[in-house]
Amino acid sequence: MAENVWILGIYMTKFGKHKDKDKLDLATEATLNALADGGVSMKDINVLAAGNLIGGTGFGQELQKQVGQTGIPVFNVTNACATGATALRVGVMSIKAGEADYALAVGVEKLAGAGLLTGNTRAAEGDVWAPDGRYGAVAPLDGRIATETMPGVFAQIGQEYGHRYGGTSFELFARIAEKNHAHSTLNPLAAYSKRFTLDEIMNDVMIAYPNTRPMCSANCDGAAAAVLVSESKLRTLSLEQQRRAVKISASILTSDPWQEACQILPDVNTLTKAAAKQAYEQAGVGPADLDLVELHDCFATAELVHYDNLGLCEEGGAADFFNSGATWRDGKTPVNVSGGLESKGHPIAATGIANVWEVAHHLRGEAGDRQIEGAKVGLAHVIGLGSACGVHILEKAAA
Amino acid sequence: MSQVIPLVDYLVLGDQPKLVANECTQCGARYFDRRSACASCSGTEFRKVDVPTTGTVRTFTIVSFAAEGVDVPFVAAVVDCDGTSVRGNIINTPPDPEHIKTGMKVKLATYEVGKDTAGTIALGYGFEPAA
Question: What are the residue ranges spanned by the domains of chain B?
């Protein structure tokens, strides 16, 4: 039986604009504070998994050159918006494989001012039409054959759910953003912590119907890091370290299995359902046991479908579930009490560790004003288009 | 008369323009790109099949903000052509939520993308409301 894996130390930086800090400053802040939080140092760490999507290759070694070159193996990972969760997953696997007692997972991104995540700028067109690529296209296709923009892709994902099951509307999706922005007012680390009225959200700049600007995740700077430890090693540490440690009851990563239409519009549902099912089985808990959920609300339209994909509601019942108030912080299953990606921000490679930090923070009882009282079990979910889905279920240490 | 070519190779022009898919001979999965193998069953043999030219809008978005050089607003959609899903814009109708609904019936239509320096016209495809 493979070892259980625990989070010993974890940290996220403030998300937002860090004008005077580069990715290494942010990643260093996250790393050193995660190590200090766990009461260990770089010398203890046996393996580093490092994620940075936009900044080029070799980020893990660049980080080592700032915080400690100890000769350990480095895995530089990228998996779109699931990069952080993938780094965490690599750490978990290393410990479960028996090759490490301590693992460090770090994710960082510098994205402030990157604007909206759209398709690539349309390339200049040649003088003479010439077929190119796997579609034999004579001109760029974004905007001519549907859209490559993320707000547009996820708008279709939400609208498709509405078409299949009913109950959705522009207003319903806007009310999901209203909830997350309301939640963000309690999160001092969020990039944006302003409450919006429903009218303000619906009348803001339309990006891709039905997603207006405040219904889209915010590009920003940020980093997060986690120190993982094997259960046998944890048992040799201080009682205080053991008390604050958070158990990783499930660590799952899936990709999208082939489905009709999955190469026409990304299918973010099938792989999330598969990841959730495996995670609940591995952890031995069910959706009803979750005290809080941080899920990948890259757009308001995405949050809705993941209520269903994660089994928080009955199949097809996501709109009713939301309308019941269940996902507000005082509801049955609080979702994105951090403010979610729509307000906390989405520094891509940091996101899949930052949402684990949020859940861990509540399980430790250290979440201050936004503490979900008595939280014992939580779930963190991310999706990277392409696609990759990470689901982690966390449990509070037994008293 | 100037030459006319399709925007993509799976659009076949003629009196009645149509989309042609690559269908896996082993499992029937359909694709529009050039294939190395089948994502569903790993088979490597494909045949060309005509895709029905009418369908139903399964989902859509109205893109108002896009990359530089892309004309907005436009309607991006997935159309269910009798079991084969197709990506395309909804054209020849106003791009607003009053005119575009999921479940609406549409049919294939072509439009002029532009003309190159040799005078060759490229035709793209979209879907327009079916009366």
Answer: 4-129
Supply angle C-alpha A157, A219, A388, rounded to 5.
45
What are A266's two structure tokens?
A: 């990304």
Asked: is A150-214+250-396 a CATH 3.40.47.10 domain? The reply is yes
Nearest-5° angle of CA A32, CA A38, CA A39?
85
Q: What is the pLDDT of residues A268-304, one digit of tens each?
A: 999 999 999 999 999 999 999 999 999 999 999 999 9
Q: B24-45 burial, b if ≥16 CB within 10 A, otherwise e?
A: beeeebbbbeebeebbbeebee
Q: Do A265 and B87 touch (CB under 8 A)?
A: yes
Convert the pLDDT of each residue in A301-337 to its tens digit: 999 999 999 999 999 999 999 999 999 999 999 999 9
Instruction: Give yes or no on whether A5-114+220-247 and A150-214+250-396 have one common fold.
Output: yes
pLDDT tens digit sequence for B10-39: 999 999 999 999 999 999 999 999 999 999
Q: Are strands A47-51 and A74-77 parallel, antiparallel or unpaired?
A: parallel
A398 falls in which pLDDT band (50, 70, 90)?
confident
CA A122 to each of CA A53, B7, B69, B71, B114: distance values in angstroms, whole numbers, following the listed order: 22, 15, 6, 11, 15
Tell me the one-letter amino acid at A212.
Answer: T
Q: For residue A144, name the pLDDT band (cuts at 50, 70, 90).
A: very high
- Alpha-carbon span A334 to A287, nearest angstrom: 12
Cα radius of gyration rounded to whole Å, chain A: 20
For residue A289, the 8-state DSSP code is G
Q: Give pTM, 2 decimals.
A: 0.96
Categorize the per-residue pLDDT at A125 as very low, low, confident or very high, splitting at 50, 70 and 90.
low
Q: Can you tell me the distance from the alpha carbon of A360 to that of A378, in angstroms, rounded to the nearest whole number?
A: 8
Tell me if the domain spanning A5-114+220-247 has CATH number 1.20.1600.10: no
Select which of A18, A81, A306, A389 is catalytic: A81
Which residues 141-200 of A have a C-beta within 8 angstroms of B? 141-149, 151-153, 155-157, 159-160, 162-163, 170
Phi, psi of A272, deg, nearest 5: -70, -40
d(CA A38, CA A31): 11
Answer for the pair B85, A265: CB distance below 8 angstroms, yes or no: yes
- Given A346, A362, A381, A392, which residue is catalytic? A346
Q: Are A294 and A260 in contact (CB under 8 A)?
A: no
Nearest CB neighbour to B97, from listed A146, A205, A209: A209
Task: Identify whether the C-beta of residue A46 lies closer than 8 Å to the C-beta of residue A72.
Answer: yes
